[in-house]
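Quick illustration for those who missed Monday's session on complexes.
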Amino acid sequence: MDATTGIPPGVTEETEPFWAAAKEGRLVVERCSSCGAESFPPRGMCRCCRARAMVPVEITSRGHVYSLTVNYQRWLPDLEVPYAIVLVEFPDHPGVRVAGRLRGCPPEEAAIGMAVEIGFEPGPGGFAIPSFVAAVPARGDAAPPGDTPDPHDPKPPRPGGPA
Ligand SMILES: [Zn+2]
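Prediction with zinc ion bound:
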């Protein structure tokens, strides 16, 4: 699947560090030098205390799906559908949620709470855009409640599946 179809992002003074880091495969959010709150998307001002001294902080941990949607609408002629968009939160970065396309599993297997790795893919206009890759459940990750087989349970992501 390809994510280059679409409209390139409008880069501002506040979002330029994000796109520069994305090009290097790094996901950065803003952290307030005054109160420590983290914000995304970057806006050059703290969402909690309105201070303007924001520093970039890199997120390196895997995240969990907070919410999701599956798009079946072919908004553009070249757009491949369906695909899942997930909103991801990170245990070590409270208050920050990042949206992106889910890769590594079929869209219908996207589920709230599933673990995802941070990934980037080529986007429109030569930008690297954040996306997420279904993670193989690691030891210590919360197992879904009830271990009995259920046809409605999300199947585990298939390692080495289509990206
Ligand atoms: Zn602050």
